[in-house]
Fold these 2 entries.
Entry 1:
Amino acid sequence: MRIALFDQYRIGIVDGTSVRDVTDVVDSRWHGTPHVINELIEHFDELEAPLRAALASAEERPLADVHLLPPVPRPGQVLAAPANYHAHVAEMTDSRYRPTNQQALQSPSRAGFFVKSSGSISGPADPIELPPMPDRAFHHEVELGIVIGKPARGVPAERAADHIFGYLVLLDLTLRTEGEQQEERTMRKSFETFTPIGPFLVTADEVPDPNALDLKLWVNGELRQQANTRDLIVGIGELIEQASGVVTLRPGDIYATGTPEGVGPIEVGDVVRAEIDGLGELTLPVVKRGW
Ligand code: MN
């Protein structure tokens, strides 16, 4: 299923260019709140049958007539893998934006994860807002995003799939700084709208092999990033094993799996388009932050 969140936190199942509202399968106390999707994810085992029943009788609306929200607006945690494709490790090692903390570049398989603020999440209808920092660069990173389904604590890689609810396209936007005076990574990646996700949350049953997905990113129509998740250094199972050995991952938590080579600057006026096989695409204008 392709799950959308739209208008006043309605839950919709998308089929082609139409959407059907199934919000009522979730307890009404969550209606009108961003947490309605976390509830659906957490209780999906019980809610799937009523959801499919509701789908049969739900009114079909054109997708173009609704306002799409980020499919998971309030993840409890947003974890992210540092440099996790060999070619991206190489480009960062040679870059003037080379991190002062080089541990992640030297040993990606042991680097673990970093955290982005969950407040940085934005959606398919939200522009990317750049803060007024003229001496800083802002880079695009397209990544496969994992959404956790079942609580995961100490989960071995071979069992990780049991804890994944679905996948989405994710951008890990990043402030980059030259030289030694670098801001903390958490802050560089946590500006509002620096984690666009969507357009939908695609359930894991629709993604037969998440380790074989093409991902692409264009800026103003120019292809900047193109890779396949088979080239991840640390695979999806291992990422979940590492992270769940540190902290319990909970339903609705998001894991950004790392970006391939080709990262580069975005500027006000650009249009960024990101696409992953079977998950859809995000097309986002870049604007100056209005506050
Ligand atoms: Mn990243």
Entry 2:
Amino acid sequence: MTPLLLAIETSCDESAVACISQDGSIIGQQLHSQVQEHRQYGGVVPELATREHVKHLPGLVDRFLAAQKIAPQDISAVAATRGPGLASSLLVGWTFSKALAWALKIPLYGINHMEGHLLSPFAGQNIRPGLALIVSGGHTMIVKIRGLNDYSVLGRTRDDAAGEAFDKVAKLIGLPYPGGPAIEEAAKNGNGQRFQLPRSLPHEGDFSFSGLKTAVRYLWEKLSPQDQADVAASFQEAVVDALVSKAFRWCKDESCELLMVSGGVSCNERLRNRLQEEGVRQGVEVLLAPKALTTDNAAMIGLAGWYRMQAGFDAAGWQDDVDPNLGWS
Ligand code: KG4
Ligand code: ZN
């Protein structure tokens, strides 16, 4: 068996494990979602998330290794999310990974969750310079990629992240958590042109979604449940418009011909289609994260670890701890 990299992700409400081979291909990945546990509260409850990770992560990893027929001695390195995320959720996966790496006497790579999202469109292929749009539940940002570990954040949201806006608006109009998939589903039966919701585009190149959320609140007060699909579709149009127009404006400003898109919101089909169409129109190559790597997963953490290992980056020290506010470095 060639040496394998095992990856663990527990930054929020998914316990996830994956395995990456020596050539950067994903051998497999498995996930335990806590969506059902958090749904009754309308969002992620950190204390509950931690308990669920403690309860499910060890069994998940055992079952994954058994299903993949991977023996402990086949694993040559571990990569785990060190931040950003919920402190106590991160701690479960990080401590588990540290113990595993220590016991097997193999290196442990501490991965920035955002770098996992950022590099996921490359999916093990060579990293190329360009601009990246990351749209998740916690972040919405435009990042310039020059190469591995050489990134600058050019723009970000001034208030809510795009995914957060989907989650909050879904709750407002009576759709379940997580809001993104629920709004996308409801929007299929709705008219996205019925309500002209504001596309707020702050001029410096940042994003803003809280005004849109407030506009939906006032609109919804005057409507009834049968308007739900039209509101969902109109809201989705407004978010997609804002993301697409801003991302391509950045490409133009930076003379960039490659746009990478990743994060949970990037599994939205309307957004994917609009980005591809606009890419063709503007002569920009659009590289979308494969759908299986859009929402939180361990494969993207493993890939980031694999790139780092290949490039000869140092593994984490045993004294390194989680960092809920981990930035780029
Ligand atoms: O990347 P992710 O799994 O977690 C974070 O790192 O935050 O993103 C989760 C976010 C949630 O806000 C969820 O509502 C959103 O991604 N999302 C979607 C869709 N699927 C998930 N948003 C829009 N359309 C979707 N189909
Ligand atoms: Zn994420």
